[in-house]
Amino acid sequence: MQQARVAESSKGSVSDRLLARMRGDILSLALIPGRVISERDLEAIYGASRTPVRQALLQLANEGLVIRAGRGYAVASIDPQELVETFEYREIVEAAAVRLACERASEVDLDAIQATIDRGLSDPSPETWFEIGADVHVMIASLSGNGFLRDAVQDIVIRIARARWLLVSTEAGQKEAHREHSEIVSLIRTRQADEAEEAIRRHGRNVRDQIMRAVGEGRRQLGAQGIVVKGSLNSR
Fold this sequence. Notes:
GO terms for molecular function: DNA binding; DNA-binding transcription factor activity. The protein is mainly alpha-helical. The protein has 9 helices and 3 strands; from the N terminus they run αβααββαααααα.
């Protein structure tokens, strides 16, 4: 995933690398929703000093992935109502982005996206499909040529990432995702704006419905702390 690779890069500052690691652990549920985390705990877990830990926590709070809990922080719970609202927002943003993409996308860019989509055919691992699903949507938004739309989709991808990890990867689900992504790219390539908009709306609703079912099942796994009703306070 472009914004949240779990692997630590050798590039960038210490703060950037720490942020990427912490974000990745939250998105992959290695840091469980609802878990209280102190600066001292994080220093020990990641072998980092206090300043980069604090900087990472501030950024993760801006992204909605951690919240203040007393004098410390807690990993934000997965909020079903917030997910519903996020998908409503995503549908509006992606509909606008795909229409602009039909006007502005180049064949080279479309070929690159299709290559990303096809990568899953040779690697059925859940990690690969998770990354592809996120990357493809940001890449399509980038085709709009509008940085605000691209950044909005990137933010949305982060906010729904943990819920997407709850999905069970199946061969049927992978085939459906490949078909729907390929259809969207094909419609952009042929400049069919109305059809491309409808296809990306339909795809988003399908993913939303799958995620909401998975969240319902995930409540049994993560408990009331991990998945909460909007407006409730989670603490340990």
